[in-house]
Amino acid sequence: MLNVKNLLAATAVAFGLMAAQSPAFATDTAKPTIVLVHGAFAASDSWDGVATILQSDDYPVISVANPLRSVSGDASYTRSLIDNIVGDIVLVGHSYGGPVITNAAKGAANVKSLVYVASFAPEKGETIAELAAKFPGGTLGEALATPIPLGNGVNDLYIEPSKFHAQFAADLPADKARLMATAQRPVTDFALNEPSGDAAWKDLPSFHIFGTADKNIPPAAMTFMAERANSRKTVTIDGASHVVMVSNPDAVADLIIEAATAK
């Protein structure tokens, strides 16, 4: 019987085999493929606004359905995808997706740059929980619902729907935030406490964007991580919430295009 980690590895391998056989991962454009990795409590459609802008500029775009089970397993899943893409890649991560791209891109010859969108950019050995608590201002813990036990001491975490708007998406209309709360994807507490592996941002140029009103990750923490990574460019959006890619898709898309065209 497979344990969770083995199941994730098997899924990654299976996904990689499917990708290798699929023409969707081979592009005819000279432009890099933009691979978007969503974070916890979100879904791949959180990138819809950004993807629409990028596609209108003829960038091939893939929005990954991030499993949100473990940093190492989710990075392997993402790596199986990028290893089967022809041509250069700009790898973009939101929130928990930041540690995923940080690990997935390590040693990947076709990833040319990393874009961190309201995101964690961990050093080797750091955990998301550790980074979230490093600076004051984060209130995610107060907004979480009762954990759902999965067995073996692992729990699924959700944001309490009644608190989702204020915590996660305060700069969005209430109706939009309500739909996002309904469709939110859970993350395991194991993923939030798993130490990160080697950091790809040490070898690749990184670009960072986040809002000043983010309540999931303190802006001071994201500033610290961007400076530590020698960010090529850091953009702050005044008053933007944690879902800056939903509320400000143009600014996020502009930074991704800058990362794609940087020399």
From TrEMBL:
Superkingdom, natural source: Bacteria
Keywords: Hydrolase, Signal
Signal peptide limits: 1-26
Keyword Repeat attributed: no
Pfam families to which the protein is assigned, alphabetical: Abhydrolase_6 (PF12697)
Keyword Signal: yes
AB hydrolase-1 domain boundaries: 34-254
GO molecular function: hydrolase activity
PANTHER family: AB HYDROLASE-1 DOMAIN-CONTAINING PROTEIN-RELATED, ESTERASE_LIPASE_THIOESTERASE DOMAIN-CONTAINING PROTEIN
UniProt name for this protein: Alpha/beta hydrolase
Species in which this protein is naturally found: Thalassospira alkalitolerans
